[in-house]
Amino acid sequence: MKRVLITGGAGFLGSHLCDRFIKEGYHVMAMDNLITGDIRNIEHLFHLPNFEFYHHDVSKYIHVPGELDYILHFASPASPIDYLKIPIQTLKVGSLGIHNCLGLARVKGARVLIASTSEVYGDPNVHPQPEEYWGNVNPIGPRGVYDEAKRFQEAITMAYHTYHGLETRIVRIFNTYGPRMRLNDGRVLPAFIGQALRGEDLTVFGDGSQTRSFCYVDDLVEGIYRLLLSDYAYPVNIGNPSEITIKEFGEEIIKLTGTKQKLVLKDLPVDDPKQRQPDITKAKAILDWEPKVSREEGLRITYDYFKNLPEEELYTAAY
Ligand code: NAD
Ligand code: UDP
């Protein structure tokens, strides 16, 4: 039985990865300090003999017993309000955290896959974004703590690959959504759906002309699984190229939820990228991967999930 360590395993993406690797017959070790995650995302796995949970901060020395084939480093605050609230922890998990994972991988002879992000492209001057684009990031702006941590994470991972011959994989994840996102994490989809469910107007930042391209979580997990098992060590974009303005996205959520509320404009956060769309030529060619779930279908599944949460969760503040 292959053994995989998933850091950030109690988070949105990490918990879906735990499910996938369990389904594929792996022994899964999830490690998480629960700073932005939720133990309920993985509780359904606790009874399994091939699942273990380690409550631990990855930025501190890490060790797990036994052999290890793969490490997936997904621990990191991921939403703007999270990483603005805990900027130093964000920088630490993207630097000390990945250093610990790479060290553990050398000891165990494991392959490492890191969760990088479309944020390495910053507010991009090239559109759509291919992996060759180096990005346009403000290192000292509010988003710099996340973007630069992720850029450092790519650099150190590549250095371990080049200088130590470690097997490494880098996935650049574009905006992904689905069940188990936190309703209060401030990202646009849970924000809009939460507002619709509470009977509040939907807050569009700026004039809503900025774009994003939203990928359903199952498609992302499939891409990550294929990349891990591939022999490609350079960054690969995984995302859904279907691009939409945030204003149009708000209108879609109004239609989906049937709310009587409307869109209201609020200030645009500093350094908010104006456009974002993945160029997935590489993922198609190397992994034979492309997204399968339409936004209409993915949003319906996600809305059903949020609608069925206990009502008090609608009113829980982020921190
Ligand atoms: P999330 O907040 O739901 O999950 C992150 C998990 O990491 C949480 O469970 C959190 O408790 C844990 N964590 C954070 N710091 C830790 C530490 N020091 N030690 C141990 N655990 C720690 O966010 P997510 O959306 O699931 O994102 C997961 C990963 O994917 C992140 O690395 C994020 O940067 C990356 N990513 C996500 C998206 C997206 O659209 N969801 C896009 C690009 C990149
Ligand atoms: N956004 C918005 N209203 C909200 C939350 C976010 O208009 O209540 C906008 C935000 O300014 C950004 C886009 O939606 O332009 C996506 O934001 P999110 O935080 O989901 O992801 P990111 O900016 O990291 O891509």
TrEMBL record:
GO biological process terms, semicolon-separated: D-xylose metabolic process; UDP-D-xylose biosynthetic process
InterPro entries assigned: NAD(P)-bd_dom, NAD(P)-bd_dom_sf, UXS-like
NAD(P)-binding domain residues: 5-301
EC class of the enzyme, as a word: lyase
Location in or out of the cell: Golgi apparatus, Golgi stack membrane
Pathway per the UniProt entry: Nucleotide-sugar biosynthesis; UDP-alpha-D-xylose biosynthesis; UDP-alpha-D-xylose from UDP-alpha-D-glucuronate: step 1/1
Keywords from the named record: Decarboxylase, Glycoprotein, Golgi apparatus, Lyase, Membrane, NAD, Signal-anchor, Transmembrane, Transmembrane helix
Entry keyword annotation includes NAD: yes
Keyword Transmembrane on entry: yes
Protein family according to the UniProt entry: Belongs to the NAD(P)-dependent epimerase/dehydratase family. UDP-glucuronic acid decarboxylase subfamily.
The name this protein goes by in its record: UDP-glucuronate decarboxylase
Organism of provenance: Spirosoma radiotolerans
